[in-house]
């Protein structure tokens, strides 16, 4: 978490200790605007044509990722927990599309994360590469299902399939969406077989879910080189608040798969859902400090610090509900000494981890 992300933890803690939170309805974004051939639209068309992939598939992936409005150039943290690149949100999932994109373009991963158009070209190359291996053809959208599942980066099959279905559902209904700088990006409706987009429930239901927080969607996540099984009798005294700097799909796929990092929970940007990766009874590696990891529950919040709209009231409200529930299992004081941001955790490289 960046120091500028103090607003997230301050607002969550403030709501919990009684400062109050307002909620507001999100803009549905349902208005249709005139389509113009702007720079983002041209970038999609150019990368699609150069790499033999369907332009509309690229657009549908980017809209599913929530990244059409990502800035052309971004200021990024080199060591971010969830490094993502471009409208397709190249990431460190089960398939490391970020590393693959860098290899295919000859650019560094950091350059891809900073340059949206370069990352779009890299994403098109990765999609073409994966599609070729899966037998996809540019003339038939239905042949891209296996490639979409692979591109998702999810570790488990139900969520891989669910991701592809969401992309196909968007292709089936089409629409006009706001891209960066307000540029409208048009996606025509396609005749996609219903078997490719009909909704399938990917949730593990309460009667069988291992989630500690009942409403949480469970994301199966190996503990190997990512967390510590059990807490060896240590108590949970803190909640550590993080922000992802990536979208929901990219963040979940990264936190499921990328070695050396893990977290207990994730809250979506609009407050609509919570995911859980590991039991609260396990130590996840989320704060860069073994002492704090061993005595805390970590919560990631989907969003970008640079977003002019900030973090939503609904995200704060959902985070408050989650922390309130966590406290039914652990004695965690409701104050800013125990509900803290990642930036407040001592850096063990500089001072004692137990400080």
Strand content: 5-15%
Q: Terminal Cα separation, in Å?
A: 19 Å
By DSSP (H or I, 4+ residues per run), the number of helices equals: 12
Report the order of strands and helices. HHHHHHHHEEHEEEHEEEHEHE
Shape: globular
Instruction: Classify the secondary structure makeup into a structural class.
Output: alpha/beta
- Most strands sheet: 6 strands, mixed
Strand order of the largest sheet: 3-7-6-9-5-10
Mean pLDDT: 89
Percent in helix: 25-40%
Q: Low-confidence stretches at least 5 residues in length (pLDDT < 50)? A: 1-7, 19-36
Taking Cα atoms only, what radius of gyration do you get, to the nearest Å? 20 Å
Could you characterize the architecture of this molecule?
With 355 residues, the protein is α/β, with parallel strands linked by helices. It is 35% helix and 10% strand. It contains 12 helices and 10 strands. The strands form 3 sheets. Strands 3-7-6-9-5-10 form a 6-stranded mixed beta sheet, covered by helices on one side. Strands 1-2 form a two-stranded antiparallel sheet. Strands 4-8 form a two-stranded antiparallel ribbon. Strand 1 (175-178) and strand 2 form a beta hairpin. Helix 1 (6-16) crosses helix 12, helix 3 packs across helix 8 (157-173) and helix 7 crosses helix 8 (157-173). It is globular and about 60 Å long. The two termini are 19 Å apart. Residues 1-7 and 19-36 have low confidence and may be disordered.
